[in-house]
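Dear support,

Our group has been running a series of protein-ligand predictions, and this particular one with magnesium ion is the one our PI (initials K.S.) wants archived with full inputs and outputs. We had some confusion internally about which version of the output was final, so please treat the block below as the authoritative record. The input we submitted was:
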Amino acid sequence: MNPDIEKILYSDEQIDRICCEIAEKIRKDHTGKDIVFVCLLKGSIMFYADLVRKVGLPCQLDFMAVSSYGSGAVSSGRVNIKKDISCDISGKDVIIVEDILDTGNTLNYIKGYLEEKSPASVQICTLFDKPARRKKPVSPDYTGAVIDDLFIVGYGLDYDEKYRYLPYVGVLKPEIYSS
Ligand code: IMP
Ligand code: MG
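Confirmed final output from the archive:
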C-alpha cells in the first residue's frame, strides 16, 4: 500500500461491484434514449470509463474540466469552466459523471449550466457523496457510496494531482494535507 494512505476504504473489487450496481440502474432508466455521459475531468476518468462500458447502451461521450479546488483540500467555492462540452445535448438525456460530491458547489453550477442547453434531462451520477459537507442543495440521481467527512484519494481522486493512479480508494493521512 502507498505509505501516504491511512487505510483502504474501497478495494478495486468493491469499486467494481459499485459500478455494476449503478450501471444496472442507469440501463433500466435510459434504455432506448439518446444518452450523453458528461465526464467531469480529471477525477472522474476511471469511474467514467468503467461506468459507460458497464452500462453498455449506445451513447455519446463528452468531457468538461472545471476548477473549484485549486491544489488544496478545501473548496474555494468558485467554479470556472476550463473545458466545455463539444456535442449538442438538446433533447438528450444528460448524465453528469462525478467522482465525489462534497459541498455541491461544482455540481450545482454545472447542472444549471447544462440545463440551459435544452436537454431532455440532466442527471447526476456520483461515485461518492459526502453529505455532511453540503453547502448547495444538490441531490444525486445515482450514488455509489455515501462516506463520512474524510479526504480520500485513488481511482482518479487526487490530492495536489497525486494518487489518481491508485486502483483502490484510500483515506489520505491527515499529516499529508495539513503540512
Ligand atoms: P464540491 O464542489 O465541493 O462538491 O467539490 C467537488 C470536487 O472536490 C470533486 O470533484 C473533487 O475534485 C474534490 N473533492 C472533494 N472531496 C474530495 C476528496 O475527499 N478527495 C479528493 N477530491 C475531493
Ligand atoms: Mg475533481
